[in-house]
Amino acid sequence: GEIEVESEVGRGSTFRVVLPVIEEVDYDKPKYLQGEDDVLSGKRVLIVDDNPINRKLVKLQANSWGMISYEVGSGQEALSVLQAGDDLFDVATIDFKMPEMDGLALGHKIHEQMGNKLPLLLLTSLNNRLKDERMKMFTTFLMKPIKSSQLYDVLVQIFAGDLADLYERQLSQEGPMYDEQTAERWPLRILLAEDNTTNQKLARLVLKRLGYEIDIVSNGLEAVQALETQSYDLILMDMQMPEMDGLEATQYIRDQLTDQPYIVAITANATKKGQAQCIRAGMDDYIRKPFKVKELVSALGKAFSYRYNQPVEPLVFEGSNYSQKEDIVSDVIIDEETINELKNMLGSQLEETLPILIEDFVQNGEKFEQELKSGLKGEDAEMVRRTAHKWHSSAIGFGALRLASLLSKIEAKGENGDFEGLAVLIEQTKESFTIVCERLIKMKEEI
Questions:
Q1: Most buried of 43, 97, 168, 395 (most Cβ within 10 A)?
Q2: For the segment 172-231, what is each residue's pLDDT rounded down to a tens digit?
């Protein structure tokens, strides 16, 4: 390529750039993007969902493959339509969460009315009920948010006659499988050092599902004091805590204590610099927030091997499709993949625990907002930095990426003692937090 510049004093500069480009190369689009499909074209689909936007999304996708769609907004409407004849539709998509008659009740009534003549595809955001035997009347299911590629693949399998164990095969692909015998396989005494109450509750629940009972402290000083009175095999150490942070606590443990546990940093700072700090302080491993079950289990295995000098066989997790995000996407209000991963973690405790975690998030956020304003008013840079970091940790856990992005900027200003523009950032944070709360409260009501 070429680059030229012309500059004139008092008037400015003009840059010209010439870049050679390669002619666009044709490529084969995935089948679900190729329009009308030989298998699906002409097939009739009944779409049952009380949410008109969700109905429209499924309809648009189905129509793009040449399918003929018919929408209804309730279970009762669906039954009325189906009473007109057994052969009106080739497949039905049914939302699980509907008022008056949910997807499960509708599925039962369709079976009473038609037997197994009509394949039923369940669309749900609640994975904790999928192993319930009553759900097996559905041909298969998809987890929300529905991806076009997944919907296409499932429909093709249905109409290709590939129905044997389709529900079970789909179930094996959804989310990490917990092994409740992990604690028996790798017995460990675990201490969690974390000052965020929401993160404490989530970590306790996940580890309990793996068979562990843990002790919890709220800062590095309490972690050191706990280790001076009893032995632990594994310390899950948050990096940023009041009184004594994770780095200081680890350095003290390595320098002053005889018993040496395996120490894993739990950090939102996954940069190479942050990782190097962990290693230099004497930590053995690190997990990025929000932590994933498979990463946590990997750390448990390493800790057992370290403490008891025994090789371990890693646990195999089937099909969690969560991809770690390297960067915060600043325009995303709530990341659906993070929410789905959180739901997977909660499992059968979803309906009981998620509302509690959401209430914690809302209450803590209101408190953090006031602390940021107090820090700004008193020009207390450390309060601003510490509060923004704690709030950022909570935001990341719920996939509130725009909120987390704003809090990262506030944390940086606190670290640098820079108050310029801070009031505007705090106001933007308040607005973003309000939107996130509205979304989470709606989610809580739908459980």
A1: 395
A2: 555 445 667 789 889 999 999 999 888 898 899 889 988 999 999 999 999 999 999 999
